[in-house]
Predict the structure.
Amino acid sequence: MQREGSGPGGPVPPPGYDRLAVGELAALLARVFERHGASAEVAGVLGRNVAHAQRDGSDSHGLFRIPGYLSTLASGWVDGRAVPVVTDAAPAFVSVDARNGFAQPAHEAARALLLDKLRSQGVALLAIHDSHHFAALWPDVEPYARLGYVALTFVNSMACVVPHGGKRALFGTNPIAFAAPRAGGDPLVFDLATSAMAHGDVQIAAREGRDLPPEHGVDAGGRPTCDPRAILDGGALLPFGGHKGSALSMMVELLAAALTGGNFSFDFSWDEHPGAQTPRTGQLLIVIDPGRGAGANFAERAEALVRAMRGAGQERLPGDRRYRQRRESESLGILLPSSELARLRELARRL
Amino acid sequence: MQREGSGPGGPVPPPGYDRLAVGELAALLARVFERHGASAEVAGVLGRNVAHAQRDGSDSHGLFRIPGYLSTLASGWVDGRAVPVVTDAAPAFVSVDARNGFAQPAHEAARALLLDKLRSQGVALLAIHDSHHFAALWPDVEPYARLGYVALTFVNSMACVVPHGGKRALFGTNPIAFAAPRAGGDPLVFDLATSAMAHGDVQIAAREGRDLPPEHGVDAGGRPTCDPRAILDGGALLPFGGHKGSALSMMVELLAAALTGGNFSFDFSWDEHPGAQTPRTGQLLIVIDPGRGAGANFAERAEALVRAMRGAGQERLPGDRRYRQRRESESLGILLPSSELARLRELARRL
């Protein structure tokens, strides 16, 4: 399968690897999703999402996720053909029932109305419920920063994090993502799990047989462990930063689930759907137009903050690693093991 | 000065202590503020704020703050008579110029308009700039939860926290506070510094000669230290939770300063105002009406989350300690050293 220069102008890939343009990978993944139960619309959204994560080097949310997506689709747990129902809940509030489908197509379906509201009201909320979010969270906020807006989002997941002072898993990894425009470069974007680490990274460590740092998780008996398999096998993660991370995780449950009408991370069970892997919960997105208040020069102020952060010795900004990998992927193509590409092509063919 | 049963029905205070009803302490503090340069309006707001912090056992934001308030007022750095200017910036967006006054009176001045907007739009923003926030942050959000709303606020302060990976202080302690109603009890409220600890707690540890835990701060040379005096004397705090807390602190700078039009934590200097202690920055408040979306039963859902947290073994909820202390203060009066009460009465008299 190895081809010379298969990426856009890229050098010859190393033996056993291929390069694929980002759009090619997105289209291939869309075919994979469509062959495994997703509608064309849903498949297109998920294909782009996973391809962009792979492009940016988000290992735990790129191709690594494909088996989980297909397994959960095959289990009947999620509806890959769901048509989200968008409700104009209030002048600055959009509510979406994802109808047991994925969160990203629900977000897509509501985007135009959300932007209308944002432009007229100065701030707008998007509350998604009955949705499955199995992806990185930064792709949900970065596009708003590219339009000049500030965006903040919260999603809950599945019970795998012990509240601070507690004994049993209850919260999800419950990430928070934030994006803000800056005048002199790519937006400032972060995407952080409120757990001590992301669940995908625990899975990767388990697969690779690597130990985790201390104070990241407990085993099935509630005892501290550095073994990722012990965490996955009846154990649990801890919140990051002790009681503060735990409070933030509680906030994410309240915003992403109670406020949207979605499930809490402990509200659902996969028991009757063997192979199910996606949390059926909710998501809240807050988008603000900084141009409406006294912060009309927001992007210039953000640039001044970046200069000050660099001046204080902070060399790596949130998002830097992703943008660097993105530029490489966009100019050379995404580097993939040929065996993985062959497997994806096989999955795209199979009916 | 000791009087028997000076609190409302309280027992005799221990020798050397007095009890004061919450309202009495608030009124006394208002007189202190008014005698030291605040207008009656500002003095009333600050008096209640400090009395409520003392009532709730928030040691670092109660009477402990009075010398700092008076010193900063005397320095001419802050305008205790400022009249905030409220602007109707957009249908869901209120902007307030605090005119170099305190943030709490600016918030008060905008509250009615903010609530109007919230009720009509479903979500509303309050962006305060050119303001001094020297108080606990939870009092800014708890009242909204008591009205059935969800509130989230961010305030930046003064450069005393080194960004993750950096060498010099740049961020403030940059707290985040959150409040949400629950059906079966007091609102869920947290108020957390994004620094490893609150600046007031460093000052208290220094005064008491206590060492801090490791990984909380660095000395003037950027070396790790557990000595609170070394942190205050040219050193700096670290963010909580490593790069995640640092990213959240950056977000607070962007939301509380860039978005509002306020100063960053490193944008101002006290050099020309000896005695100045209050940060001249900004604050953002986001208030959401959960009844407008699919989360109409928010308070019941929050109660279910509380039950689950307790079921998972979490014994102390965010806010619990404050509410317990509040109930005691409200039934017995606030216990104060008689010497401190005498000093306050002296300060209230002096012109």
In short: Chain A has two domains: 1-74+333-351, 83-195+239-312.
